[in-house]
């Protein structure tokens, strides 16, 4: 994991957290019975896996005397037990189900339980500032179970930037030339699905070491997938599932896999080149500010489209109006 230092003068205001699904853990990093603290959306949360294998994410502080359940809390069956006085809370609805020294359970003894969905090797949480039920599902990625593809590779980075700024990167073909050493600005097109929510960027990356067609699919600010096609049966996918820790800090979880034809041809070079290229952006993110109203030029159409598209993920009128 790489840690990038934040710029001291980063004092501008940033938007709230956009709604949507955000990763809080890789599945393989949460064993049955494991309990861990998680920080996301500027909140303290507890993540655990019950004995039946269900991942649960709940507010961390016990309603009794405020102990943090993510520190020394224990899984008991389908509940988590507070380390302070042993109260147990259900994984599915957060209700207190057992107080070891009292047979009457107070009505308000309950933990807020977040909507989670586990797929694609990750545990996702649905975030909405008004706590609504999930409004869409994330896609399943069939490549993860396809024997024609390599097993996934992972890379992670803690970045001092708002989650929207990181998402914006996949709709910014001009920076490919300046930050990622692409020779010239690639031909690019941005489209949005009829549902209005999924955005696509198509770019011809002809002047790279490995020329490719890049297709970035942004499902929401919390999930973007990039597919690079180098030729018939020569594909790579990489997806980023960020965890919005607070408004200035994002933990990026990248997962990469290639078709085995690429590995046969180029060994690890393509994958290694892509992983190295990911860190090109970090010095920019570490030192930039978030511009609510950027000055755009005529050729910045993909970015303008992105800023209009991203408004739908915000709830407050200030964030909806000031972005773009
Ligand atoms: S603080 Fe959790 S049981 Fe007392
Ligand atoms: Fe980039």
Automatic annotation (TrEMBL):
One of its GO terms (biological process) is cholesterol metabolic process. GO terms for molecular function: 2 iron, 2 sulfur cluster binding; cholesterol 7-desaturase [NAD(P)H] activity; metal ion binding. It comes from the Bacteria. SUPFAM superfamilies: Bet v1-like, ISP domain. This is cholesterol 7-desaturase. Its main location: membrane. Pathway: Hormone biosynthesis; Steroid hormone biosynthesis; dafachronic acid biosynthesis. Keywords: 2Fe-2S, Iron, Iron-sulfur, Membrane, Metal-binding, Oxidoreductase, Transmembrane, Transmembrane helix. Belongs to the cholesterol 7-desaturase family. Its cofactor is Fe cation. Pfam families: KshA_C (PF19298), Rieske (PF00355). It catalyses: cholesterol + NADH + O2 + H(+) = 7-dehydrocholesterol + NAD(+) + 2 H2O; cholesterol + NADPH + O2 + H(+) = 7-dehydrocholesterol + NADP(+) + 2 H2O. Its EC number is 1.14.19.21. InterPro entries: Cholesterol_7-desaturase, KshA-like_C, Rieske_2Fe-2S, Rieske_2Fe-2S_sf. It is found in: Membrane. One of its GO terms (cellular component) is cytoplasm. The lineage of its organism: Bacteria, Pseudomonadati, Pseudomonadota, Gammaproteobacteria, Cellvibrionales. Residues 21-125 form the Rieske domain. It comes from Halioglobus maricola.
């Amino acid at each position: 994991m790489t840690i990038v230092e934040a710029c001291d003068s980063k004092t501008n205001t940033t938007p709230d957290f956009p709604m949507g699904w955000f990763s809080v853990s890789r599945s393989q990093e949460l064993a049955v019975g494991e309990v861990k603290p998680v920080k996301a959306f500027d909140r303290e949360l507890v993540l655990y896996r019950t004995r039946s294998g269900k991942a649960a994410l709940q507010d961390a502080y016990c309603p009794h005397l405020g102990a943090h359940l993510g520190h020394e809390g224990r899984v008991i069956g389908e509940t988590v037990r507070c380390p302070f006085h042993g109260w147990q809370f259900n994984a599915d609805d957060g209700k207190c189900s057992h107080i070891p020294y009292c047979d009457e359970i107070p009505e308000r003894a309950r933990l807020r339980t977040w909507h989670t969905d586990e797929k694609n090797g990750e545990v996702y949480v649905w975030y909405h500032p008004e706590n609504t039920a999930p409004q869409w599902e994330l896609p399943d990625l069939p490549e993860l179970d396809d024997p024609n593809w390599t097993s996934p590779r992972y890379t992670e980075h803690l970045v001092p930037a708002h989650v929207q700024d990181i998402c914006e990167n996949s709709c910014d073909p001009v920076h490919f030339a300046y930050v990622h050493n692409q020779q010239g600005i690639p031909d690019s097109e941005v489209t949005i699905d009829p549902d209005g929510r999924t955005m696509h960027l198509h770019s011809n990356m002809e002047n790279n070491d490995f020329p490719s067609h890049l297709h970035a699919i942004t499902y929401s600010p919390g999930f973007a997938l990039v597919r690079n096609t180098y030729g018939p049966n020569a594909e790579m996918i990489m997806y980023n599932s960020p965890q919005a820790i607070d408004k200035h800090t994002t933990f990026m979880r990248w997962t990469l896999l290639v078709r085995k034809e690429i590995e046969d041809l180029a060994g690890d070079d393509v994958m290694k080149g892509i992983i190295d290229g990911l860190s090109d952006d970090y010095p920019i993110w570490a030192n930039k500010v978030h511009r609510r109203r950027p000055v755009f030029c005529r050729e910045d159409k993909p970015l303008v489209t992105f800023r209009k598209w991203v408004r739908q993920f915000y709830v407050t009128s200030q964030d909806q109006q000031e972005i773009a």
